[in-house]
Amino acid sequence: MSRIGKKPIPLPGGVKVNVSGNLVTVEGPLGKLQQDFRPEVEVILDETNNLLEVKNVAGTRIGNAMHGLYRALINNMVVGVSGIRKKTRNLRDRVFVRGCGKSPPDSGRFCQRNPKADPGRAGSQVPRPAACSHQGNQ
Question: b or e along 90-124 (b: 16 or more beta carbons within 10 Å of the residue's beta carbon)?
Fold first, then answer.
């Protein structure tokens, strides 16, 4: 069995799921999505706990593969229609310069890319210690 497939899918508020035959329909504030699934897996809706479970019915190799796949697809559908995951990356709070030994020439967060190392993107700011221009000629 798939480790991913064993995890139940929590349903956030405002998301409605309908399972009929081999079709799962997920409806939320951002839209409506549908997914057909193979007969090797079974989708079970637990309305009391607001959970959706994907079970491997066949127990075959294909069933094991489809178990985790459909769980991930349905979870992505739930996340997509609900809009609960909106991650933003704030790179300015992280210091990427390490192992260089010198302070970067600009604002203190990034090193300039070494033009000898990558001539196609010379001068662009890259948050990688390997792209540091302080390491000298290598």
Answer: eeeeeebbeeeeeebeeeeebbbbbeeeeeeeeee
Task: Count Cβ atoms within 10 A of the Cβ of residue 132 and give its class: 0-12 exposed, 13-18 middle, 19 or more buried.
Answer: buried
What is the distance between the alpha carbons of residues 18 and 62, in angstroms, rounded to a whole number? 25
Average pLDDT, consecutive stretches of 10 residues, N- to C-terminus, the chain (138 residues): 84 93 93 93 92 91 90 93 69 49 50 52 51 48
Q: Which residue range forms the structural domain that includes residue 48?
A: 3-82
Q: Specify whether the backbone of 66 is left (phi greater than 0), alpha (psi in -120 to 50) or beta.
A: alpha
The rounded distance, in Å, linking the Cα atoms of 96 and 109 is: 7
Which tokens belong to 92?
A: 């300015």
On whether residue 138 sits in a domain, the answer given is: no
Do 21 and 69 lie in a common domain? yes
Q: Is residue 75 part of a domain?
A: yes
Could you count the other beta carbons within 10 Å of the beta carbon of residue 63? 19
